[in-house]
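Hi all, long-time lurker, first post. I run a small reading group and we've been trying to get comfortable going from sequence to structure in the token notation. Rather than ask abstract questions, I figured I'd post a concrete chain and ask someone more experienced to write out its structure so we can walk through it together at our next meeting. Sequence below, copied exactly:
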Amino acid sequence: MTHADLRAAFLDTLCNVAPDIDPATVEDDEHIQDDLGLDSMDVLNLVTALHEILGVDIPEADYPQIATPAQAVAYLAKRLG
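-- Answer (accepted) --
Happy to help. Here is the structure in token form:
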């Protein structure tokens, strides 16, 4: 998957978890909890959905590595590498 594909997949999954988020307005450096308002259960749902869609296991210790779209895309690219 390309960087753009991973970003689109991440944002699509994020918006399925938090439907009030407009993917067109999400910046790469916005924190999914601090800036976009996800709570811990939303993050867990996001991680579960990413696993289902991309087949990537994201251990809880790695959650800080997916805290922003840019970090998530880099992390997912590395894991799918």
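A couple of things your group might point at:
Residues 14 and 46 are 6 Å apart (CA to CA).
The mean pLDDT is 96.
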